[in-house]
């Protein structure tokens, strides 16, 4: 029997971060201004111009996206287990594992080609590079979708752990803290491919990793734990999410102010811009705390009025996240390569974003309707 376990606030929060990420991709592929924050090497420094302030503000918003994807992916697996009470544990693991494999394949054969169109369509003269271990040729990039798939696979394998909340929380905390514990002292230290894939963002040979598995797995595990409590105590968990989010934000701010553990890189000067310039590759514990805090506060706000116009708009995109992600990535990559090879300003970028959202809204609503009408459809793998 299928139980109707669906949380509109999650769909709305997921849709909101998808809309924000679409703007971030417009900045990268159309405006041609994009930030980068590696643990060593490339790290954007923002000036005091209006364009720099806009870039930093948009980057802070878009930094909510990747942690939100992994957190809600973990929650979604917990909600799926509660919804499909007719499935055995083995069937649930297989379904989750198949979805993880599909995400990895879609990353290699759909997502990465779109980024290549965008990169090769760039005529601004900017040359990608500067990350730890940067080399001449990349044959296996590990993107957000790749790591999302790998973490989905690992959650399928770790299903027995989910019955032990304290153990799950301890493993998640260890994974999230791992960049502050185990990154090499020097960016020129030799790093094997397994260590690169697991933790050390950068490049080894042809392997390029932006999203190492271990810290992002920790975020997914926290999301899974949150989803389990959401199933058991929905009202209390939704109400508590705001206070959990505020606590995460305050702890993240305190660690950033202290400037040592959890930062990976301390601010380079005393400006507010450097204080807010957090390391994402791999995600520092301060980054994770700050962005999960923002994600949970956003979830609570959108959960208050799920029938509001804003929430319904976000839900429309949030119920077809993968279709929306891939379609808009290709849309903006092609628009940027054809019409804006030399970039443009933020005002034009905003218009491109609005037009793109208008074009993709019918696609997302159609996919969501099809999934809702066919509970056993293969579309539920996406």
From TrEMBL:
Record key words, sorted: Membrane, Transmembrane, Transmembrane helix
Chain segments annotated as transmembrane: 60-81, 101-118, 138-158, 165-183, 213-231, 243-261, 281-302, 322-340, 346-368
Pfam families listed in its UniProt record: Acyl_transf_3
UniProt-listed InterPro entries: Acyl_transf_3_dom
Every Acyltransferase domain range: 8-368
GO MF entries: acyltransferase activity, transferring groups other than amino-acyl groups
PANTHER family xrefs: HEPARAN-ALPHA-GLUCOSAMINIDE N-ACETYLTRANSFERASE CATALYTIC DOMAIN-CONTAINING PROTEIN (PTHR40407:SF1), MEMBRANE PROTEIN-LIKE PROTEIN (PTHR40407)
Protein name per its UniProtKB record: DUF1624 domain-containing protein
Organism encoding this protein: Gluconacetobacter dulcium
């Amino acid at each position: 029997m299928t139980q109707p376990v669906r949380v509109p606030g999650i769909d709305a929060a997921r849709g909101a971060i998808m809309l924000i990420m679409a703007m971030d991709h417009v900045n990268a592929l159309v405006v041609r201004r994009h930030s980068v924050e590696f643990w060593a090497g490339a790290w954007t420094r923002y000036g005091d111009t209006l364009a720099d302030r806009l870039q930093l503000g948009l980057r802070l918003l878009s930094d909510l996206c990747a942690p939100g994807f992994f957190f809600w992916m973990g929650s979604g697996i917990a909600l799926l287990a509660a919804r499909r009470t007719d499935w055995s544990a083995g069937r649930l693991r297989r379904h989750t594992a198949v979805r993880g494999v599909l995400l990895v394949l879609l990353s290699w054969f759909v997502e990465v080609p779109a980024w290549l169109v965008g990169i090769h369509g760039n005529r601004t003269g900017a040359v990608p590079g500067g990350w730890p271990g940067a080399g001449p040729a990349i044959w296996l990039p590990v993107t957000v979708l790749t790591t999302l798939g790998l973490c989905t696979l690992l959650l399928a394998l770790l299903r027995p752990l989910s019955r032990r909340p304290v153990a799950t929380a301890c493993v998640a905390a260890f994974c999230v803290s791992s960049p502050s514990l185990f990154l090499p002292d020097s960016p020129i230290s030799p790093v094997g491919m397994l260590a690169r894939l697991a933790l050390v963002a950068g490049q080894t040979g042809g392997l390029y990793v932006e999203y190492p598995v271990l810290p992002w797995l920790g975020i997914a595990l926290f999301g899974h734990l949150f989803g389990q409590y959401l199933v058991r105590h929905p009202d209390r968990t939704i109400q508590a999410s705001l206070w959990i989010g505020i606590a995460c934000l305050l702890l993240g701010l305190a660690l950033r102010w202290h400037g040592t553990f959890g930062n990976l890189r301390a601010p380079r000067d005393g400006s507010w811009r450097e204080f807010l310039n957090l390391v994402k590759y791999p995600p520092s514990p301060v980054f994770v705390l700050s962005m999960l805090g923002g994600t949970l506060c956003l979830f609570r706000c959108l959960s208050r009025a799920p029938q509001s116009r804003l929430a319904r708009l976000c839900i429309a995109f949030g119920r077809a996240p993968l279709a929306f992600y891939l379609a808009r990535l290709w849309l903006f990559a092609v628009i940027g390569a054809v019409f804006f090879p030399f970039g443009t300003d933020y005002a034009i970028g905003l218009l491109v974003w609005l037009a793109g959202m208008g074009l993709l809204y019918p696609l997302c609503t159609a996919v969501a309707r099809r999934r809702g009408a066919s509970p056993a459809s293969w579309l539920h793998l996406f």
